[in-house]
Amino acid sequence: MSADSAVRFTASDETTQIIKRTAGEIEPQVIEMRRYFHMHPELSGQEFRTAIHIETILDKLGVEHRRVAGTGIIATIRGEAPDAYDAQGKPRRRVALRADIDALPVTERTGVAYESYNEGVMHACGHDCHISMMLGAIDMITRLKTHLRGEVRIIFQPAEEISDGAMMMIGAGAIEGVDAIYGAHIWSEVEAGTISCEPGQRMAHTDWFRIDIKGVSSHGSMPHKGIDAVVVGAELVTGLQVLVSRDTSPFEPVVVTVGEFHSGEARNIVSGSAYLTGTIRTWSDKMRSEVPERLKRIVVEVCSAFGATATFSYENGNPGLSNDPEQAAICRGSIERVLGEDALATYRGTLSGEDFSEYLNRIPGVFVFVGARNEELGCVHPQHSCFYNVDESVLIKGSMVAAQWAADQLA
To answer: Taking every annotated instance into account, which residue ranges of this chain make up the domain Peptidase M20 dimerisation (predicted)?
Structure first.
């Protein structure tokens, strides 16, 4: 980043002080909001109650908004600095902040007082935190209007967990005219109180597969009369790992996970069919392109060895997530201004995926990891665990960084 860019993307000290002062005032509300959303999780594409509650809070804050893509929301905060808009009403610069809002089909086992009211559904990935951090940031930004030379667009995105939401919001015009975008994920592998915003690739390519096995059913007492799809499927669960352990260089990150295995109709019948579904995570473009054929080879050969046949289908999901170097540098400055240099974390990245990558493939931006790991509080479980919980003291920090980034962008 050039020296000119560094100067251009730095808000005034007064702006930072307003953010810090507001943080002290609204932190209890941010935590309260997080607990409300945690108690009322909704699955991807079904976030109706969540969207209504977000809209209610936006109305109280006096922020204009519109509903798109079913349960998505686009909100707008217009800067009021003298040159925020040109004679034609176009903002000098428009930046976006994004928060995802959906939950997971997980039965919660945390035992907290604000545990999920919706049996079998849980905010096990922290999207409840993302909503509340964003609403906190919006509160801060509304108090900065006279300092903003441009416009802040806020995207509340549904369906991130099924990898569809970002493209739905892009189709609804969420990033039209946007110059840069910011996203954040609360993260169990980063220590509470610190935030990671390194440049370059941060998350993996996310792809999906399904294997349909066709065997031959028979009586449970006569397995030799059939071809047991359960046995074939079980062999595939372990056989697919050959891709990782023996078919790929140890220096090439790859993850193969079977998430579903369904087979059988009764306890005394050799199952004649089964299906497995799962996800593949790769780091490099080259490996991503090679994996489908390698997996297909393993599936065909294993099934053939047992006399079964299989149909293998593969679906490309979201590409790997990579931070723009300049935007990462700007964000680093934003973190330092509101939280201090000690808040900067070093994190190598993750084989998890995020459809925020779809935004970054189209416009420059940055995606940060807000650390929430705190062993003293028992906040040590990974995302998607039924025991997942966070150190809530970090929520306001996430709000502050998002607001400071927006202010720096529009300085």
So the answer is: 208-300
- Residue that finishes a domain, picked among 289, 316, 343: 316
**One domain for residues 242 and 302:** yes
Q: Is 219 annotated as a binding residue?
A: no
Q: Which is the catalytic residue, given 47, 100, 108, 160? A: 160
Calculate the alpha carbon distances from 154 to 36, 160, 169, 242, 317 in Å: 20, 16, 11, 44, 24
The answer to whether 147 is annotated as binding is no
- The reply to whether 207 belongs to the active site is no
Q: What is the pLDDT of residue 5?
A: 52
Confirm whether residue 40 is marked as ligand binding: no
Measured at the CA of 337, the angle between CA 346 and CA 401, to 5 degrees, comes to: 70
The mean pLDDT value of the chain amounts to 96
Per annotation, catalytic residue among 27, 42, 100, 102: 102
Strand partners, 303: none
Q: How many domains does the chain have?
A: 2
Which H or E run contains 59? helix 48-61
* % of the chain at pLDDT higher than 90: 97
**pLDDT tens readout for residues 285-313:** 999 999 999 999 999 999 999 999 999 99
260 a catalytic residue: no
> What is the residue range of 349's domain?
3-204+320-409
65 is in an annotated binding site: no
CATH number at residue 248: 3.30.70.360
Q: Is the pLDDT of residue 3 over 60?
A: no
